[in-house]
Amino acid sequence: MVTTKNSRADVIAAAGRLFSQKGYHGTSMRDLGRELGLLGSSLYAHVDSKQDLLVEVVEAGGQLFQASADAAIQVEGSAEARLRALIDGHIEVVLENVDVARTFLNEARDLDHEHREKVLKARDAYESAFRAVIAEGRDDGSFRDDVDPKTAAIFILSILNAIERWYRPGGRLDRARLVDEVTAFVESGLT
Q1: Is the pTM of this model over 0.90?
Q2: Which fold has domain 8-45?
Q3: Torsions phi, psi of 11, nearest 5?
Q4: Could you say which of 2.40.10.120, 1.20.1270.50, 3.20.20.380, 1.10.357.10 is the CATH number of the domain covering 52-190?
Q5: What is the mean pLDDT of the chain?
Q6: Based on CB atoms within 10 Å of each CB, which residue in 20, 34, 51, 122 is the most buried?
């Protein structure tokens, strides 16, 4: 019998893959054990519960998105340049971390109340970077003066969050072209 040594990081990565593919409720500890070559009960050496795994995957997603926003708001130049960097960063997180991003975007609703509240605060902080850049562009004349930053941020994030559902690597759009297309579409609504 071949035994494999799985680290906690391996368990979390496998949970992210399965939550992404099957959903939180569609993934059992037995499924996760099979994915890792372990008995389901052996997983409890790594985690206390399936909810703990969801918390870790969702928090990792939130951290990736926030790090991309933190980098984007430091970009020199115009509000348009920072908005493009926000869009590019979001797309990079989604495409380079599809399992974590998909779990963050689609499965966070299954967190317990305490953790869901933390994720909502993190999501609001992330969204505030978009609102701030849009408000800056409105105020400096880069964007229309009647743009509502909150509504515009929600629209933009809705577009960006949907990418994980339809984008396929190797398709008609490579990542750079996708960033160009989304940015052009968004800016046409703001200018």
Answers
A1: no
A2: Arc Repressor Mutant, subunit A (1.10.10)
A3: -65, -45
A4: 1.10.357.10
A5: 91
A6: 20
